[in-house]
Amino acid sequence: METILLEKETNVAKIILNRPDKLNALSPELIEDLIHAMSDVEADNNTRAIVVTGAGRAFSAGGDVQKDILPLSEKSPSEFMSYMTRAAVLYRMIFDINKPVIAAVNGHAVGAGLDLAMACDIRIASDQAQVGEFFVRMGLTPEVGLYLMPRLIGLGKAKLLCFTGDLIGAADAERMGLVDKVVTADELIPQTMELAGRLANGPVAISYIKKGINQSLALNFEGSLDAASQTQYQLVHTEDHKEAVSSFLEKRKPDFKGR
User: Fold this and answer.
1) DSSP 10
2) What are phi and psi of 75, to 5 degrees?
């Protein structure tokens, strides 16, 4: 993988977009490398939480104009859909993987870079970060943003950002709910890795909670309750649930194994 770095420590994997000279703009190669990395960490039973961040001063500047955006209009319909499918595969992998994924937004996250961050479960941003849905600036439409942004920040604000392509700072993004926490630049990776480690050492219930929350987006209240009951039945038979009960009764800290 030439365009990313994959680092693993204890139960946490860190995926680093590594095109700093291009502000980690998404290219076909970067998308394929990210798919490969996500497949790797999904299959790795020792990895129980994932951090995604960027090398250098940006998280991701969106689609690479020369490699990603310019060629789009020159593709045949089948070539176009084949290419777009690979990006969709990546977004779905991040959204669906049964492990928590945290975006450490270290700098600009715009266009497809912001969509990538939104596909993650949690977004922690540097106070130096700026975000924006730049698709409209290229005469294009957001992808993940059409679905997730209204659910994160509300319909009106989502339309405002998508219609204008305005860039907003980390503090405003946090107030809107577009990012979940803002920290100083030097604390971004330490605090993100600390949270990732905490989640990695949590019970297998975290993966079920992620799946349940995602599924609830397409369910009504009654359907969500029914799904939760089915999930609860599965969880009461896990080793982690038994360990939680035992540790509580024995007044000690639980030792979860993620199963």
Assistant:
1) T
2) -85, 150
Q: Name the nearest CA neighbour of 38 among 79, 97, 85.
A: 97
Closest CA to 153 of 179, 190, 132: 179
Q: How far apart are CA 223 and CA 217, in angstroms?
A: 11
CB atoms within 10 A of CB 28: 15
* Helix 77-96, helix 28-43: angle, nearest 10: 30
Residues 143-160: tens digit of each pLDDT? 999 999 999 999 999 999
- Report the SS3 class of residue 236: coil
Cα angle vertex 123, ends 140, 29, to 5°?
50
Query: What residues have CB less than 8 Å from 75, skipping those under 6 apart?
Result: 83
Q: What is the pTM of this model?
A: 0.93
Contact (CB, 8 A) for 244 and 254:
yes
Q: Which helix (H) or strand (E) holds 109?
A: strand 108-110
Close Cβ partners of 97 (under 8 Å, ≥ 6 residues apart): 38, 41, 42, 50
